[in-house]
Every structure is written in structure tokens, then in C-alpha cells.
Design goal:
single chain, two-stranded antiparallel ribbon, 20 helices, 2 strands
């Protein structure tokens, strides 16, 4: 912990760090367009004020997480551009008997895709298919797009590369790709999410129960290039292989950054392939423009900020406050983390929230002397699934409503929540119960 300042009106290092952190979080909420710059500015103040020593700055940033997100974004951009996801959606639609099952199938397909692809990108891929169906049948696309958006958010927590929050969990807890499927001999987050998806599917079936119009065949999308699909599949396979490799004899830098290196190298392979194929840098330039550098800068700044409040003892203090409120009762602590996360994620971005709460959850578990896995998974259930509750709770929801707005459909919060609330509550409640039963 940083040393306190001498008496005479100066706040202690912990108080200063807490005030700065609170101001940072308030600014992140009030000025979402400038979140990355706010996080970086706050990080600079933490260092300049001496709360976090300069020598610890580089180590504070989880470069494995940054590289994983960067590499995955690049490969996914190439995958989307190849039109493969659109073809997969068309093939699914061909097998469906009517609109109800077509929309539910599209929502489930969006969920499966978003387990490996960014949620917003998933919505941008799948939504046009739903709009095409709606136009042909002369029905409103609103409910279908909402279903696709909330389903893509749900599956983001299923795998290591499904969402930024999952990558954050993997980096913090040292989890590899396979750990999301089986962790310490028990079902991992993937199966928790699938049970939640199954429960929420019945909500969608109830919402679309009257949509019985038959589906006419759609013209199949033509795939322009299969190589990006192989690269994405290769990314997943190599992440699995890396999780099985022994660490003995491998340089520490490689073992600590293996997932990030895999994602970045395969992205670069995709770039090289496109340069050779087209004899031009145009595709690479377009792909580089599609990478979300804003989120990467936001995370880099947040890593430093969180290291600062940890150094100052703020994380331990917050953990102690949770334990004090819950009275050392792990079930109460777990319940608070899940449902407070649901509520907060309905209104704020879950990336800074999860980045902040992971060390807090670990601190709580340490104080109670329990395995932190229960609290980590509870945090993921609440924060990732909770974003579905409102139109502004997740970027995918905002993207879906933006698509509808361009089509001339203004969607009220009430109409959105008519689907999102029962969908979210069914998924979260199922996950909440299952995680407790597995990891209590």
C-alpha cells in the first residue's frame, strides 16, 4: 500500500485513490464518447500522483488480453467480409417451417456466432437476414432484431473469445480456452450459458407464438473467400492446443502471452494472404480501420487505474465492505454480486465494471477464505447477461436499435423491455442457481 501523506489537511493515499477512481467512473458514465481518453488521463494522474509507481505501469497492463482482443477483432473482420456468416444463416433459414422458428433459429444462431465473434459484429451480420425475411413477408422486423441482439449478448460469456468480459476473466483468473468448458472437473461457464439460453428460448417461443407464416426460400449468399473461416477455426483450435501444452521449457513471456500471440499471428497471416491475393493493401487497410482501438485504449487505461487503486488498498477496502454488509455469509455475498451486477449492467458499460469487480471478487473470496470461482462466475452471469435488460445496457442492443432506426422503426424502451426483461430474468436466474449449485 502507498504511504499516507503527513497530517495537515492532506488525504491519505487510499482516500486520494478512491476519490480519483470515483471521479473517473463518474466521467466514464457521463461522457461515454470519451471513455478511452478519460481512462488514459486517469491512469496518468495515478502515476503522476505517485499512487502507482512508474515501474509498475507496464506490468499493470494485461498485454495478453490486449493482444487477444486485437487479433480476434482483425480475424473476425475478415470473416465477416467473406460473407460466410450470412451463408450460414441462409442455410439455417431453409430448414425452418415458419416465421416463429426462423426468428428463434436466427436468435440461437446469433448466440452461437457471438460465442466466438464480437456481439456487435454478430448483430450486424445476422440482422440483415431477419430484415430480408420481414420484407418478404411484410411483417415488422422489430421483435426479430431485438431477439437477435439479446441472444448475442447472452452467449458472449460462453467462451474465452466470446466477449471482452470473458477475456478479462480469463486473464485475471488464468483460465484457458478449455477452462470455459470444464474447470477443475466441473462444468464451466459455457454450460451455464447454454442452460440459460435454453431457458430463454422458451421466452422467445412465447413471444413469437403467433408468427405462423410459412418461410419462402431465400437466395443463398455467396461466400467470396473461405480462408478467413479457416483462420477463425484455426484460432479456436490453436487456443485449445495451447491450453493442453506443458509450460516446462517454454519461455515465460510465451506462456504468459500465448493466447494473445496466437490471435495476433493468425490475424497477420490473414493480412499476408490478402496482400498476396489482391496484390494490394486495401483489404488490410479496411480491416485495420474496423478494429476497435477505442476499446483497446480504454482497457489499457483501466488496467493501470485498477492497479493504482489496488496499490492504494481501495480494492481491499471495497472487498471488506462487501463482507461487512453480508455478514461473512457467502450466499449473501454471491447473491449481491449477481443481482447488483444485473442492475448496474442494465445502465452502464460492463467492460469497466467487470474490470473493476474481478479483483474485488478475488479480494472478497480471500477474506472469506473461499474459492473465488463462485464469485467470478456469478459476476459474469450478472454483468454479461444483465446488459440485456435495457436498450442501453449493451452495445449490441444499441447496434440493433440503430439498424431498426435506419429501417424506419423507432423502438421505445417499453417495447424493447417487453422481450428483454423476461429473456434476461430467465437466463440470469437459471445461471444464478446453476453456478451456486456447482461452485458453492
Amino acid at each position: 500500500m502507498a504511504q499516507s501523506q503527513p497530517a495537515g489537511g492532506y488525504a491519505t493515499a487510499m482516500t486520494a485513490a478512491l476519490v480519483l477512481f470515483a471521479a473517473t467512473y463518474a466521467a466514464l458514465l457521463l461522457f461515454p464518447k470519451y471513455r478511452a481518453y478519460i481512462a488514459l488521463g486517469s491512469a496518468a494522474i495515478f502515476v503522476a500522483a505517485g499512487i502507482l509507481p512508474v515501474g509498475k505501469v507496464l506490468n499493470a497492463v494485461d498485454w495478453n488480453v490486449i493482444m487477444m482482443i486485437l487479433g480476434t477483432m482483425g480475424t473476425v473482420a475478415l470473416f465477416i467480409d467473406s460473407k460466410m456468416p450470412a451463408l450460414m444463416a441462409d442455410l439455417i433459414i431453409e430448414k425452418m417451417p415458419n416465421v416463429k422458428w426462423a426468428i428463434v433459429a436466427l436468435a440461437l444462431f446469433a448466440g452461437i456466432i457471438s460465442a466466438f465473434v464480437d456481439n456487435v459484429a454478430t448483430v450486424l451480420m445476422v440482422a440483415p437476414v431477419a430484415i430480408t425475411i420481414a420484407r418478404k413477408l411484410k411483417i415488422s422486423p422489430v421483435n426479430a432484431i431485438i431477439a437477435i441482439a439479446v441472444s448475442s449478448n447472452l452467449q458472449g460469456a460462453a467462451t474465452l473469445v466470446g466477449d471482452t468480459t470473458s477475456i478479462l476473466l480469463g486473464g485475471h483468473a488464468g483460465m484457458n480456452f478449455l477452462d470455459f468448458f470444464v474447470y477443475r472437473g466441473k462444468p464451466g461457464m459455457f454450460w451455464v450459458v447454454q442452460v440459460g439460453a435454453l431457458a430463454s428460448m422458451f421466452v422467445l417461443l412465447a413471444v413469437f407464438r403467433k408468427e405462423s407464416e410459412p418461410i419462402t426460400s431465400l437466395e443463398r449468399q455467396k461466400v467470396t473467400d473461405y480462408v478467413p473461416s479457416y483462420l477463425l477455426l484455426g484460432t479456436v483450435l490453436l487456443l485449445i492446443i495451447a491450453s493442453l501444452l506443458p509450460k516446462d521449457g517454454i519461455p515465460p513471456f510465451v506462456t504468459d502471452h500465448i493466447n494473445g500471440l496466437i490471435c495476433v499471428v493468425l490475424m497477420l497471416v490473414g493480412f499476408a494472404y490478402n496482400i498476396i491475393k489482391t496484390r494490394s493493401l486495401e483489404t488490410v487497410k479496411v480491416t485495420l480501420m474496423e478494429i476497435d482501438y477505442f476499446t483497446l485504449l480504454l482497457l489499457a487505461g483501466l488496467f493501470v487505474v485498477i492497479a493504482g487503486i489496488t496499490e492504494a488498498g481501495v480494492v481491499d477496502a471495497i472487498s471488506a465492505a462487501f463482507v461487512s454488509v453480508a455478514g461473512d455469509n457467502i450466499f449473501v455475498v454471491y447473491t449481491l454480486i449477481v443481482w447488483v451486477s444485473v442492475f448496474l449492467s442494465a445502465f452502464i458499460d460492463n467492460i469497466p465494471y467487470v474490470a473493476t469487480m474481478l479483483p474485488v471478487a478475488g479480494g472478497i473470496a480471500k477474506q472469506l477464505g473461499v474459492d473465488p470461482t463462485l464469485l467470478y462466475f456469478g459476476l459474469m452471469v450478472g454483468a454479461t447477461l444483465g446488459g440485456n435488460l435495457t436498450p442501453i445496457g449493451a452495445s449490441a442492443n444499441i447496434a440493433g436499435l440503430g439498424i431498426l432506426r435506419k429501417e424506419g422503426h423507432e423502438v421505445s424502451a417499453a417495447r424493447f423491455m417487453k422481450i428483454s426483461v423476461p429473456f434476461t430474468l430467465s437466463a440470469v436466474t437459471t445461471g444464478y442457481v446453476l453456478v451456486w449449485l456447482l461452485w458453492r
